[in-house]
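Incident log, structure service

09:12 report received: a user says their structure output differs between two submissions of the same chain.
09:20 pulled the input from the user's history:
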Amino acid sequence: MKYRYTKFTGDALDELDLEDLVSKLSDLLLSSGFGNPHGHNEEERTMQALHDAILDALFNGGVLPEETIERLLGDPADGDQDEARSQLEDLIQQIIERMTDEGYITAPPDLDGERERRQGRGAGQGPDQPPVTFEVTDKTLDFLGYRALRDLLGSLGKSSYGRHDTREQATGVETTGAPKPYEFGDTLNLDAAATLVNAARRQHERGESTSRLHVTHEDLMVVEGEYQSSCATVLMLDCSHSMILYGEDRFTPAKRVALALAQLIKTQYPGDALKVVLFHDSAEEIPLAELGRVRVGPYYTNTREGLRLSRRILDRQRKDMRQIIMITDGKPSALTQPDGRIYKNAFGLDPFIVAETCAEVAACRKSGIMINTFMLARDYDLVSFVRRVADICKGKAYFTTPYTLGQYVLMDYMDKKTKTIH
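09:34 re-ran on a clean worker, output below:
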C-alpha cells in the first residue's frame, strides 16, 4: 500500500472568528430600510444580501488572514479561476450554515437550493421567484448589544461605571471613602469604630480613664458613600421616514445604542428598567427583543403621542428616578386628535402641534419625569423646538451625530449614577 503526503494548509473555516464576522455584519443584521428607502415593503434580509455582506467582510473586513485569502483566490497565472470561485462559494455556504447552527440566524432549510438559484441553475426558480430571506435571532441582538456596549465604553476610556444621582437620602449606601468628622446636615452614616477611637483618644489626652467611654458630639465620625438609586427609562426612538433619508442612515445607529443601553442596564444596573417606544404617525411600545427587527416607514413625527405613551409607562414604575431619552432628527409634524384621526403638517413648525406637544412636556415635568433629547439633525426649527422642550422640563438637549450618539447617551446615563453623601 502506498501513501501520498501533501502539505496541510488548514481549513479556512477554522481560521474564522464567527463573532468577529457577526460584528462586521451588524449593519445588515440591524438594517432599517436604508438600502431601499422608497421600497418599504421589500425585505432587505435576503440570502443574497447575506452572501454579499459575508463576501465583503472576508476580503475587506479583516476577518481572515491575508495568506488564507490568497489561498482562496488562487494564482491568477494558473488561468483556472473556476475552482477558486467554487471554493469561495463553498466557504460562504459553510459560514451561513455555521451561523444557522450556532443560532445567529434562522435560515430556510434548503440552502443548496438558494445557492443554485443565485447561480441560475435552480429548477423552477426563475428570476420572478421571490428571494429567500433569513431572520435575525435574539442571540444575535444580545451579542450585538454587548459588542456595541464594549466598543462604546472602550472609546470613552471608562474602566468602571457610575451610579444614578438622586436628591433623596435612603438606605442602600455603599462606603467609598475614609471616615470624616460629623457636620450638621450630614446623613448619620456612623462609623462606630472611628467614633469610639476618637472618644478613647480624647479621654486619654485629658487623663481620664478609658475603661468606660463617653461619646460626645465631637467624637462622631461618619463615612462617605454613594447611594445607588433605581431608574426607570423609556427610550423614545423616532422612526419617521426622515431617519433614513438625505444620504444617511440614522435609525440603525439608534437601534445599536438602544441594544448597548439594554446590555449596560442588564449587566451593571439590574434594578433599573428600560422600555422602548417608537413614535411616528402615532406611537407604540415594543419589546426590546424586537428592536433589531424594526424598520422605518413613510411616517410623520408624532412627538406628543410618544411622550404621552412614555409618561403612562413611567407612571406605572415605582422608581426613584424616571426619565425619557428621546432620539429624533425631525420636528413634530403630526398630532393625534381626540377622535383618533391624525393631523399632519410637515411644513415648518405648526403652532397647534407645537402647543399640544409642549403641553405634554409640561405634564411629564409635573409627573417628575426628566426628558433628555438627542438630536441627529440641526435644522433650525428642530433646534428651536428642542430648546423649548429643555426649558420646560429642565432637561438637556444634545446636538450629536449617528457616529457619536452612543457616547452621548451612555455618558448621560452613567453620569446620573453618582452621588456622594456624608
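09:41 both user submissions now match this output. Likely a transient worker issue. Closing.
09:42 reviewer note: Residues 177-227 form one domain. The first helix runs from residue 18 to 24.
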